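call fold(seq) -> tokens
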Amino acid sequence: MEEDDVISDQELEEISKSFDIGVGSSNVTPQTSITINHTTPEGSVFQEPGVDRKYSPVLGSIYGSLEQCQKMYQEYAYRVGFDFRKSNNKKTNSGRIYQKWYICSRAGNPPKMKVDTLENCGRLIRKSNIQRTGCRAMVRFDSVGEKGCFRLAVFEEIHNHLMDPPQHRHLSKHERQLKYAKQLFVYKASVCNIGLTKAHQLYSTIKGCDENVNGTVTDFRNWSRDLNVYISESDSQMLINKMEEKKEYFPGFSFYFKAEDSVLHSLFWADEVAKCNYNEFSDIMSFDATYQTNRYNMMFVPFTGIDNHGKCVRFAAGLIWDEKAETYIWLLKSFMDAFGKEPIMVVTDQDKSMEIAIRNVFKTAKHRLCMWRITQKLPTKVKDAIPSIEDEAQRDFKQRFDSIIRTSWIPAYFIDTSMFGLMRTTSRSESENAFFSHFTRSGLNLINFMSGFELAMLKQRSKQEDLDAKTIKTTREYCRKLEIERHAAKVYTHTMFEVIQKEIEAAIYSCSLARMTTEESAQVAVIQENRQGSKTAQYKVLHNREDGLKLLQEFLDKVKALKIDVEKNVQKTPKKKKEDTMANMIGTRRPDEVHVNNPPVGSYKGCAKKTRIMGGKELGIKESQKRKAMCRNCGGTNHNARTCGKEKVTKKQCTSIEFAKQNNSNEASVSNP
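ret:
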């Protein structure tokens, strides 16, 4: 049965005419299956189990297609207790199949292994269970007519091995095929940073026991492996295609990418909900790079703000391959193209590249450095610079200190900026990075990283909806029956009202209004605070008269309308093909041509350099610790048996060769005077 055995269409037509059996004929008498005793290769005797006649194959039966043939034999194999696999087929010159074989999965002979106990090459022989027993059970289907029908021509039902008992049927190949629901569960568990072993344990707990899962941990791992192989080298191109398709269907979605020499370098994206958040809460923004979120070591840069509940809210996000100033300039220019306006103030750490990018792109936004980092480093820096400071005039030192760092972090220099007190450090960005770490890890490809990011956004926005609902449904409890407290309950959300309520209570007992003035169309209130002891302090409070309640309500209406539109897009029913299932699951199809390649594994600040030159001693120690693979033919270590030019020499032959060399040397020594 060779794959290339073909006959002409004319000969096939003559063969098909010799069978005068109607398609779907039911007048064929089923043959009776006889139970016969068999002996396994291990010596155990058993009886082949019987099966109901309606499931047993009948010679001469006609089936409409090969799929129906396979389905019939699959049902029979499951009820009897064995697995089968596809075997050879024969085709015509035109490529049409006219004969097809299905055989038992234990057909064929086990592979032969050569073992030589005299040869000691340090090779470990892998132990494996033998599954092939030479079973001859099989069926053969022949083509009938031109309608694609097939007739059961040969049926061998005798097996030479034990059948699977009913309690083990859930481990058969037929039952271990993962359905779409399980495949999607494995994919979503991987996105949520749940390992495959834990995912299988969780699924079996939901189903009640492992027997109800119809799949082992290995099957879960194989599916995850197949999904990663499907993405593989097309990772970057598939992500770009997915984002471009989203940009086409959602007009408010912004996406930009940068490639250098056809290799992905940077990404930036922001959806419509993020833009609505930015329009309402763009007073202050923080962004910082986080590491170890994908397998290419691309830095993840989320743009973070504070919403009306005092919680972190994400405006946009980016992926960059390096942290150069040019990269951050491109990232901020993409931000401006997407949002169209600058934030009032930006808070970052002391990264010089960020500072250069902000100064080049943002024209009106104020740049504030992280106050916590400066207060931690300043004492050490000043202590080390004391000798040079003592020789410098006080006026020159003050000017130099102001130009370098003072105006970038001290709160007094930002008092004229609205909402400047909401964020003084980059802890918001670090908190957001910690939040995203639950959905990302260092080994993820870009497609899975984006799926984890989208899942994190759903969770963040769900929390925001819960807080909005709590504000609407609950009534605040008043501590003091004051008009200002009642007014605050109407203006602020539930979370922020609790903060304001504490401030009101503290103002009653500890603060008093010293005077009220007007400066540049804004009211300035001078508050005097009586602290513990005899200390007093005064504060200037700028009051903004603009009422944002109407804008907030419009924002909530937009979010609810967007939620209704998204819920209308139900998930499409997946197709039967494996590649179609994977494409439907991850949201994009693997392209035929890749124009943007995956980036190489990059390096980030603080990671070890891979280009360090090692000394000869260090290289020698490193090489000596490696386990060297030996050639089976000659025992060398610089090649293997496939590339070796010598014939295989056994230990006995080596001994005889060494003995001959020794005799030759002895004879030479005797002949010399």
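The longest strand covers residues 312-320.
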